[in-house]
TrEMBL record:
This is Iron ABC transporter permease. It comes from Janibacter melonis. One of its GO terms (biological process) is transmembrane transport. SUPFAM superfamilies: MetI-like. Belongs to the binding-protein-dependent transport system permease family. The keyword rRNA-binding does not apply. One of its GO terms (cellular component) is plasma membrane. Pfam families: BPD_transp_1. Coiled coil: none annotated. It is a multi-pass membrane protein. Its main location: membrane.
């Protein structure tokens, strides 16, 4: 009996969704919930009994207070700056008739898929005393962390708000303009209120990503600045304070769940204001009144280009001399690792392919499940909860999950520590929510009446699905594979725990080189970072050619 027929026999859309989600839920339970509980158990269970006596001690530490305050403060400020840059940029790139808008959209979205450790390395190279902007004195400051967070997340706002802008029904704004409202008045009273759910959703996701920007803070913050994510890493690896790490992990999980609930509610409202017609709305010619938005867009583009150009320049210099020695060094074995940068890139690529394919299969099943259309309010609530559940890996500390893998998947029947499976599985867990967010919006826009008409004409459920939905899905599936590849290539948090010392991935190797003194190690790290950035950007460039607005939108 084929799958679609089983789904029809299942009865309600909610029951069909449950069948589709069984395998992904099992995967989530084994490779997310179990490691998370294992990590929390090490921190809260003593001699087989629950022990919460240390919670007050952990929360009462002055360092914990500083870490929480810095995490909340820097994430809030970065979110505000990102919105201030991202919303006008989304307007310019999605609504105005700007030459090269497609290229600029690809450029702006590029930082989002870059490895966080590479983002940190590029900004460090730009702001270091010997870098192009070294005279500003920002190296090692909180401003450097802020700039890197904005650089990394402006794509989320541009893609999310831009996709919502493209989806608005233009007739409301046209009616307001026909009644004499000025373009500014239409923007304030019609357009922005309709976009508010998308803006709130983007803001919650940006705050989530800023508060969990592990590689960026670890590279730029050093010992002076720490967020909850880097503090969990320090407590786990250096101080072996598992209770302190567990307490912070629980706090982080509470914040993540709150933000995901907020994001889901606002996304549901955003779907309610999307226009029914998918016909494109004509772009608006550039006029003088658009100058402020154009200036903000120029600033956003400059913010994206500066560290990229600075990183390339630094990779071509060693000391005060222009040279290709840093790139020639990529083929040489890095002492203490047994691997060269090229070998590490090959390792990263093999792992990323496995992770992307696994994330694609699971993500497609989840997307098919959460886009069912139950009639009851309870059914819709169940699907919304299911959708939010698979977003949890985005916000829970990768360090927590990585360490949880080591302490829970170490005995039969799940003794996986000695196998090469752990790293691609961990990376698939990170990529899974992004795959769902790429495919699900496309499935929601499919007119199910076409499938019903095909079934009425005698087509089997499988034939109807292949005729109606599959032709619409092939581009999102390709985009999801590319997106998952790019994200997996740069995953650092969990991989830092799980990668074998003699088989490091390229992000791990870059971080190793950055921690070593000397111009040779620093130049090699910069060249390796540029190489990794180039590969991820090339992958996302191919994805961008598919012109799928759901990629990178939340």
């Amino acid at each position: 009996m084929d799958g679609p027929h089983l789904l029809r026999r299942a009865g309600s859309p909610a029951a069909a969704a449950a069948l589709l989600a069984l395998l992904p839920l099992a995967f989530l339970a084994v490779f997310f919930v179990l490691p998370l509980l294992g990590m929390l158990g090490r921190g809260f269970v003593t001699d087989g009994a629950l022990d919460l006596s240390g919670v007050g001690d952990v929360l009462g530490r002055s360092r914990t207070a500083r870490v929480l305050a810095f995490t909340a403060g820097i994430s809030t400020l970065a979110t505000a700056v990102t919105l201030a840059l991202g919303v006008p940029t989304a307007y310019v790139l999605h609504r105005l008739r700007v030459p090269g808008a497609g290229l600029l959209r690809a450029l702006v979205v590029m930082p989002f898929v870059m490895p966080t450790v590479v983002v940190g390395v590029l900004w460090r190279g730009l702001l270091a005393s010997s870098g192009p902007l070294g005279g500003l004195g920002l190296d090692g400051s909180w401003v450097a962390i802020l700039l890197a967070m904005v650089f990394f997340n402006v794509a989320v706002v541009v893609r999310t708000v831009g996709a919502a802008w493209d989806g608005l029904d233009p007739r409301t704004a046209q009616a307001a303009a026909a009644l004499g409202a000025s373009p500014g008045h239409v923007l304030r009273t019609v357009t922005l209120p309709a976009l508010r759910p998308a803006v709130v959703s983007a803001a919650s996701v940006v705050f989530l990503f800023c508060s969990t920007a592990f590689g960026v803070v670890l590279t730029l913050g050093g010992l002076r600045y720490a967020t909850v994510e880097t503090e969990i890493y320090l407590l786990t690896t250096s101080l072996l304070d598992l209770q302190g790490a567990a307490v912070l992990s629980v706090l982080q999980l509470v914040v993540v769940v709150t933000l995901l609930v907020l994001s889901e509610r606002t996304r549901s409202r955003a779907r309610g204001v999307r226009r029914r017609s998918r016909a494109s709305v004509p772009r608006v010619p550039v006029a003088r009144r658009h100058l402020p938005a154009l200036v903000v867009t120029a600033v956003a583009v400059l913010l994206v280009l500066a560290p990229l150009v600075g990183g390339v320049v630094r990779s071509l210099r060693r000391g005060s001399t222009w040279t290709l020695a840093n790139y020639a060094q990529l083929t040489s074995e890095v002492p203490g690792t047994g691997a060269s940068a090229w070998h590490a890139l090959g390792t990263s690529w093999r792992i990323a392919v496995d992770a992307a394919l696994l994330a694609l299969v699971l993500g497609l099943l989840v997307a098919l499940a959460v886009t069912r259309r139950p009639r009851s309010r309870r059914g819709r609530s169940v699907l919304a909860t299911l959708d939010a559940t698979f977003m949890l890996p985005l916000g829970v500390s990768a360090v927590t999950i990585g360490f949880g893998f080591l302490i829970t998947l170490d005995r039969p029947p799940l003794d996986l520590r000695s196998t090469p499976l752990l790293v691609p599985v961990a990376q698939a867990m990170v990529a899974l929510p992004l795959v769902v967010r790429t495919i699900a919006p496309v499935l929601r826009d499919v007119d199910r009446r076409q499938g019903e008409a095909a079934a009425t004409l005698g087509a089997s459920p499988l034939r109807a699905w292949a005729t109606v939905e599959l032709p619409v899905l092939w581009r999102p599936l390709l985009a999801a594979v590319g997106f998952a590849l790019a994200v997996s290539l740069g995953e650092f948090g969990a991989t830092a725990f799980l990668a074998r010392p003699d088989e490091p991935t390229l992000p791990v190797l870059v971080y190793t080189l950055m921690g070593r003194p000397g111009a040779e190690a620093q130049g090699g790290a910069m060249a390796a970072a540029v190489l990794l950035a180039a590969v991820t950007v090339a992958v996302m460039g191919l994805v961008e050619r598919l012109r799928l607005s759901s990629v990178g939108a939340f």
